[in-house]
Model the fold of this input.
Amino acid sequence: MNDVETDQRFMHRALELAREAERHGEVPVGAVVVLEGEIVGEGYNAPIGEHDPTAHAEIRALRAAAQRLGNYRLPGTTLYVTLEPCVMCAGAMIHARVQRLVYAARDPKTGAAGSVFHIADSDRHNHRLAVTSGVLAEESAELLRTFFRARR
Done:
């Protein structure tokens, strides 16, 4: 399996998790953390249900991975997420030492991996993430558009 196929496979899982968030009335965002080809953490948006403003998909996936691996540092990992991370989530990835970020849809309002802010790869930090964007972007963007259209 090549890198593109690998990225798509893990992004498909993140999209499944995003649909789970939607079933719970949450903004449909899903994330997985992968180490050496294996998912070590998963999460979907749950700030409403958990009454927790930090319960974004990425944070929940990072927490799950850290618990599973027994370490708050996650070197060598890749985080796949269906929407470009916000500043909080990008910052958490930096602190966790995630190696690579792969996201689907850009967030033109609050994206922190190149759309609005450049947190993920800023040389102001002592750690930078390699960033790949646009993996299954249209599928993710359509999921988000449909979700928000239904709420207007």
Summary: The chain is about 40% helix and 20% strand. The beta strands are 30-35, 38-44, 77-83, 100-105, 130-133. The mean pLDDT is 96. The helical segments are 3-23, 47-50, 57-69, 87-96, 137-151.
